[in-house]
Amino acid sequence: MAAESTDGAVNPPSKLLSPITVLPGVGPSRAQQLARIGIQHVVDAIFCFPRSYQDLTHVKRIAELEENQEASLEAVVEEMDLRGTSPGKSMLGILFSDGTGALRGVWFNQTYLVDRFRRGQRVIVSGKPRMRSMQWEMTHPRVQSLEEDDDHDLHKMLPIYPLTENLKQRQVRAIVRQAVTEAVDDLEEVLPESFRLQHHLAPLAEAVEGIHWPTDAAQLAIAKRRFVFQELLVMQLALAMKRQQASTSHGAV
């Protein structure tokens, strides 16, 4: 039932408790996949916080790499080479370039990875580079494919969500973004403004957006602080209520 505002107008019903299938592109099959990671309603998607982040705020060029210094770089797949090194052993080599130089990614005994790459594919490559035979090389680097809908996340903190079979990061990111965009304003702020200001806490909607798509580590810390503080506050209130109930029960004996 729609809620009535103070001026008598009828407000549209909140989407928070609506099934996740109300979001565009989420059919029964996708809904089953999302249910496996705890997303059944729109509000579940909003509070499905990233389990980690890929920091793309300091993406380097290949020409800027330093020996054994952890780095992430945006590059294009140029060549793929899969070969056997000995009976039962294999090596996959992928050549990446970014216009300032080239870097070779090497994986041992992981032939299945070859299907994840294609020539011309844009990726983020992360790892510790070393110079070998006059060329930069990373052994078993982490590689994130840059889909078209990930462009807005370049040079930011890229959220990494929990996944399940046949569910990709870009799909979860798109669903979470849609849920937040459409329903974050329906969330009820549980902390009074005076309390938030006193303790320097971000508003709820701002914290939700900051924890999903922080522009840097500082914004992420602000968002996390809001939710950690709120969780501790709820725990303290619950403990206080238990003490009061125990005291009341004891006094009634």
How would you sum up this structure, described in words?
Helix 5 (204-212) crosses helix 6 (217-252). The two termini are 45 Å apart. A 7-stranded mixed β-sheet has the order 6-7-4-3-2-5-8, with no helix packed on it. Strand 3 and strand 4 form a beta hairpin. The model is unreliable at 1-10 (pLDDT under 50). The protein has helices spanning 28-35, 42-46, 169-183, 193-199, 204-212, 217-252, and strands spanning 52-55, 71-86, 89-97, 102-108, 122-127, 130-132, 135-139, 142-145, 157-160. Helices cover 32% and strands 23% of the residues. The protein has 6 helices and 9 strands. The chain is an alpha+beta fold.
What is the gist of this entry?
By secondary structure, the protein is α+β, with helices and mostly antiparallel strands. It has six helices and nine strands. Helix 5 (204-212) crosses helix 6.
Total number of beta strands: 9
Would you identify the regions where 5 or more consecutive residues have pLDDT less than 50?
1-10
Ends distance: 45 Å
Biggest β-sheet: strands ordered side by side in the sheet: 6-7-4-3-2-5-8
| Beta-strand content | 15-25%
The gross shape turns out to be elongated
Rg computed from alpha carbons, rounded to a whole number of angstroms: 24 Å
- Total helical segments: 6
Order of helices and strands: HHEEEEEEEEEHHHH
- Proportion of helical residues: 25-40%
Mean pLDDT: 87
How would you characterize the largest beta sheet?
A: 7 strands, mixed
Would you tell me the structural class of the helices and strands?
alpha+beta
